[in-house]
Specification:
By secondary structure, this protein is mostly beta strands. It is built from no helices and 20 strands. Strand 16 (210-215) and strand 17 (218-223) form a beta hairpin.
Amino acid sequence: MSYLNNVVGYRKDLLSNRSVVKKNNYALLDPDGLVKNVIPGFENCDITILGSPKLGASFVDYLVTIYADGKNELGFGAEGVETLFYLLDGSLVVKAGDQSYSLHKGGFVYCPPGTKLYFHNESGEVAKAFMYKRVYMRLEGFEPYVVTGNTESMEWTIYEGMEDVLIKDFLPKDLAFDCNFHILSFKPGASHGYIETHVQEHGAYCLSGQGMYNLDNDWIPVQKGDYIFMSAYSLQACYAVGRGEDFAYVYSKDCNRDVTL
């Protein structure tokens, strides 16, 4: 089973797609249009590149389907590059440096620059993961370190005083880290408190539900499986819509650093 909606041959309907791409500003990627990429080191995997510098991001986001015995023994990451591996579904073993971790749905491993990440799906079942990499911005006197956990067991925190908007943080609030990852969840009808305008950029993968997202003052419908890129200063906010299911997404954010000139 592939989590990427590639097809073979003709479809029975007109060609259509909900994606919106405005490079260096924002983008919505409909999963129906995602294609498989060949990337050295990823064996028995379907992988697609989502956000990237070619879109206007300072980072790269990936969506990867890892079949039985799928693995990366070459290592993900490089000197000066930090990475995150977040397991959306299934279970597998991830190695960060010399340490191994058994991950299940919601499990994640953050690797600091220079620490490569390896994985192997020995479960016999298909797994799905979201991955991230970015050049780390060093801060004198601080060193990042491997962080692992599972979002399924984390407590929700009320977001900016709104009881129907909740958040989970992946990484410690520590100046050693120049980024963080969060899950933001909205009850149906909930929204951001205001339209945000900020220097940080985001890559977001929608985990559940439906929403109407304001991207640079364009209101765009989004739903589970969509990917959203939001560039620095691109206006952004959303309302959760639909019935019953919370609208939630996992996203990255650069933080804890001044702007360089």
